[in-house]
Amino acid sequence: MRRPNILIVHWHDLGTHLSAYGHPVESPHSQALADQSLVFDHWFATTPLCSPARGSLWTGRYPHSNGLQGLTHRGWDYHPGERTLSHHLGDAGYHSCLIGLQHEANDPERLGFTELRTERPSWCDDVAEQAVEWIGEHAADDAPWMLTCGMTEVHRPWPESRYDPVDPATVTVPPWLPDNDLTRRDLASYEGCIRDADAALGRIIAALDDAGLAESTIVVFVTDHGSPFPRGKSTLFDPGVQTAMMLRLPEAYGIAPGRVAPLASHVDLVPTLLGLIGVAVPAAVQGVDLTPQLRGEVEQARDQVWLEKTYHGEYDPIRAIRTPQWKFVLNFEPRPLLQLPLDLEGSLTRQGMGDDHLEPRPMQELYDLTADPDEVTNLAEDPVHAEVRDRLHRQLLDFLAETGDRLLDGPIPNPDPAAA
Question: Does the predicted TM-score (pTM) go above 0.70?
Answer without folding.
Answer: yes
